[in-house]
């Protein structure tokens, strides 16, 4: 999570809606939840190092190329953050994702819906409390392409590509004159993944490779693109580690390093005849060079036959906003 920027960006996107239409060709970058991609409980518990893991419904959001390796598996996953900041009341976030593997030879498909809701408290007694909401709806597609590269006779490497097409929106009961502030737009992600063994993968995602969000005032902005690269290695069938390097577009249009993160997951399997079939524990770390801050994460999942209950905790240090949050998730397999 881009923790040190989200509150200023929340103020920025509110202010951006008031920019006159004469600035519609400006190159301002839009912030808010559109630039905060670390949300799902399982991935957050691993420090956000999920780009090369992406092996469940969350692949739709994190790396659509990962869906191509799901086989016939189908799953839906939900994450809810009741309070994103412990020192900023009234900011909640939720994500629902679905993914299924390629069962017809036309590629894997999925989708995600994210909703971020903020309550803006009044500065003075007697003033109204305002609401701000941002939402992202996306469709995902991924496919293995090694056969098109003349490599189908080899077991490895397996190579996949993926695409996300996004609809972006914002709404508020804040007004400009008599008109409530709102925005809508589009964006797209491109992704790739290569599996060199069953237990070793690398993944690359370019989020928001092109985008445009238009406010009802006429102002047009872009979501800053992200370039994320990740590595996954399974030390044993039950123990994996992963690492991500994340960059985000700066004001000059160049990529700037935003996150170094890593994590691990260990799965205790009890067998399919047990009521609780497995328990997974996770831990991770993050380092954010822009403000020299750091954080640690942890989490766990309890899996039954057809679903798992997920939890993640995040704590950050050394930033302008020292904060923590809890994330609750549910993943259903079918």
Shape: globular
Task: Average the pLDDT over all residues and give the rounded result.
Answer: 86
Low-confidence stretches: 1-9, 11-28
Strand content: over 45%
Please count the beta strands (DSSP E, at least 2 residues each). Answer: 15
Question: How many distinct helices?
Answer: 3
Compute the separation of the termini in Å. 30 Å
Strand adjacency order, main sheet: 1-2-3-4-5-6-7-9-10-11-12-13-14-15
Secondary-structure element pattern, one letter each:
HHHEEEEEEEEEEEEEEE
User: What's the alpha carbon Rg, rounded to whole Å?
Assistant: 20 Å
Overall SS class: mainly beta
Describe this protein's structure.
It is a single chain. By secondary structure, the chain is mainly beta. It is 7% helix and 54% strand. It contains three helices and 15 strands. The protein has helices spanning 3-16, 41-45, 59-62; strands at 74-81, 91-100, 108-120, 130-144, 158-176, 179-197, 200-215, 220-221, 226-236, 239-249, 255-269, 278-288, 293-303, 307-317, 324-333. A 14-stranded antiparallel beta barrel has the order 1-2-3-4-5-6-7-9-10-11-12-13-14-15. The radius of gyration is 20 Å and the shape is globular. Residues 1-9 and 11-28 have low confidence and may be disordered.
């Amino acid at each position: 999570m881009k923790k040190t920027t989200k509150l200023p960006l929340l103020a920025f996107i509110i202010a951006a809606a008031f920019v006159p239409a004469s600035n519609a060709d400006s190159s301002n970058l839009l912030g808010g939840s559109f630039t905060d991609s670390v949300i799902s409980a399982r991935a957050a518990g691993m420090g956000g190092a999920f780009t090369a893991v992406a092996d469940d419904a969350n692949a739709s959001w994190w790396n659509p190329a990962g869906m191509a390796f799901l086989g016939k598996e189908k799953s839906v996953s939900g994450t809810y953050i009741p309070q994103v900041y412990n020192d900023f009341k009234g900011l909640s976030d939720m994500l629902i994702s679905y993914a299924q593997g390629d069962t017809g030879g036309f590629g894997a498909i999925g989708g995600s819906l994210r909703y971020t809701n903020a309550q803006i408290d009044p500065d003075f007694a007697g003033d109204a409390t305002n609401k701000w909401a941002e939402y992202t709806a996306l469709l995902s597609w991924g496919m293995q392409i090694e056969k098109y590269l003349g490599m189908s006779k080899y077991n490895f490497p397996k190579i996949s590509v993926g695409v996300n097409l996004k609809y972006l929106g914002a709404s508020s009961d804040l007004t400009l004159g008599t008109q409530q502030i709102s925005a809508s737009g589009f964006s797209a992600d491109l992704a790739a993944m290569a599996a060199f063994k069953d237990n070793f993968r690398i993944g690359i995602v370019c989020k928001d490779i092109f985008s445009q969000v238009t406010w009802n005032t006429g102002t047009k902005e872009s979501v800053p693109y992200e370039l994320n690269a990740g590595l996954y290695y399974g030390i044993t069938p039950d123990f994996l580690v992963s690492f991500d390097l994340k960059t985000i577009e700066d004001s000059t249009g160049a990529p700037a390093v935003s996150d170094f993160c890593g994590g691990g997951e260990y799965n205790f399997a009890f067998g399919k005849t047990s009521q609780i079939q497995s328990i997974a524990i996770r831990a991770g770390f993050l380092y954010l060079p822009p403000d020299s801050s750091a954080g640690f994460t942890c989490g766990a999942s309890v899996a039954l036959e057809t679903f798992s209950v997920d939890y993640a905790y995040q704590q950050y240090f050394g930033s302008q906003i020292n904060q923590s949050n809890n994330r609750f998730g549910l993943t259903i397999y079918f």
